[in-house]
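#struct-help
A.M.: can someone run this one for me? Single chain, 336 residues.
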Amino acid sequence: MFELLRNIEFDQPWFLLLLVLVPGMIYYLYAYRDKSPTGALKVGSLQVKGGNKSMRVLALRFLPLLYLAGLTFLIFALARPQLALKEEEVTAEGIDIILALDLSSSMLAKDFQPDRLEVSKKVASDFVDKRQDDRIGLVVFSGESFTQCPLTSDHRIVKRFLSQLQCGFLEEGTAIGMGLATAVNRIKDSDAKSKVVILLTDGDNNTGYIRPLTAAEMARELDVTVYTIGVGSKGMALTPQGKRSDGSYVFDYARVMINEELLNQIAQITGGRYFRATSEESLGMVYNEIDQLEKTEREVTTFKRYSDEFPWFLRVGLILFLLHMILKLSVLRTYP
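D.P.: on it. Structure tokens below:
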């Protein structure tokens, strides 16, 4: 109800100045007139002092309020109240984004808790939540690459695929060039104003039949911006070094080897940037910075429609006037 009243506007608000007459009339009827000398002959009352007044006397006392209420509604009708129906038309120019994630076994390194992969999945999922107007897809790679999720605006599907990612079901190795080429191939036919690939890896290109810089040149020719992220602490980290017969990994300390020069070159060729993330907090900051660099443009057009509400006020005012007249001329009629 209150929300509705906030949307009421008046086309001719100056008529509302007439409302100042209403309190004056109330004062005249119930204060001034009762105290003014009229010359009338006062007679004693047979009514017991302290007894209840008859309903007719009370009704006569408050009968003028019907007239004043009707007058108030008619004044509001003259001011022509209108209900403002605000409508907003939003045109969002979304960005198409492919997340390319490294699934090589080194992503299970324990320098992130519980490991690099789980942290990367969590932070990427948070990033997806922020990009409400964008289409997002998912490409994974290790020794080979494939599209885990094509571009979609249904972010629940993207997050579901992210949560299911695991190391070990692809050929071992780190084929950065193939991962980037697959991502570029998935986004090249997009008609979005901006096309972005976010490539995350923790190593160096050591396999695959497509060179990373060749894939970067492809991206530049197709107007795809690539942001590269090197994930891993500096120094030594507890990293998988092999597998047991039961399929579980054998961990040992090894030096973190990220080809930052290569990742920086890929980003520079495509007009993007390279970031190094050495902790969960810094990885979150990287995604936040990319979120700011690739803002979705939104064009908002607001317009209003009005519906006249004065007929309702007019009807109520006339009904109150009519009720006042009927009561005054019938059951509440007075005689001189």
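A.M.: thanks! The CA atoms of residues 43 and 221 lie 107 Å apart.
D.P.: also worth noting: DSSP finds ten helices and eleven strands in the chain.
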